[in-house]
Design goal:
The chain is α+β, with helices and mostly antiparallel strands. The chain folds into 2 domains: 21-187, Superoxide dismutase, copper/zinc binding domain (Immunoglobulin-like); 188-232. 32% of the residues lie in helices and 25% in strands. It contains 3 helices and 8 strands. It has helices at residues 2-25, 176-181, 190-235; strands at 27-33, 40-48, 51-59, 66-72, 108-113, 120-126, 142-146, 162-170. Strands 5-4-7-8-1-2-3-6 form an 8-stranded antiparallel sheet. A hairpin with a 2-residue loop joins strand 2 (40-48) and strand 3. The longest helix has 46 residues, at 190-235. The chain is elongated and about 100 Å long. The structure holds copper (II) ion (CU). The site of copper (II) ion has 7 residues, from strand 4 and strand 7. Copper (II) ion (CU) binds at residues 68, 70, 72, 88, 144, 146, 159.
Length: 240
Amino acid sequence: MKTLSTFLAAAGLFLFAGSLSADQHGLIAVLEPTEGNDVEGHVTFTKSGDGVTIEAKVGGLEPNSRHGFHIHEFGDISAADGTSAGGHFNPEGHDHGLPDEEPRHAGDLGNLEADEDGMATMSRTVDDITLTEGANAVLGRGVVVHAKPDDGGQPTGNAGPRIAVGTIGIRNPNTPSALASSVNAGAENPLSELAEEAGETAEATGEAVTEGTEEVADGIGEALTRAADALEEAAEPKSE
Ligand SMILES: [Cu+2]
């Protein structure tokens, strides 16, 4: 009985820790290109007061283009064309709309706007989704980048095929991608570079320590051998 209750307590703690980390660290969707496309990036979801801040960094788009950008119902990205992600995430059964319109689908994030390098960043705080709680929770759902702009038309904005998709999961706070998302993106991201440098330094330090320790051990070994030789010599009777 004691074992069982200990086990249940541990399991409860584990579940608690799971939802706690999702709320503390936020969520991330890593976007992968659908078949025939080269678009990739990531989207983070961070608790912000009563709302959720969504930050996206997406590359590989056509220069100066606009692309419909939505949370979709399913985190299933198994279909090569992304259709397995289903329709727009719309837990309240509203009509489609652009982000500054009400009502609209909870998953309606409007458009990504690519710069001349085909890179798009977006930051938006919304109050109609949650990370993990209730019917509007986005954990486990999908993010879709479309080939065409979302024009706000019914039923889903006429945004065309899906060029990148990702599943929304719990973010690891220790990865460079999580760091990168908290600042303005761009190819040269100072934070992710810093994180990379810190990682390399830590690795180099680790190697140096290992090498140094080995050298010291070698040195001690040699000194002991010399001392033993000297003792042996001293113990030997002088025959000369
Ligand atoms: Cu969509």
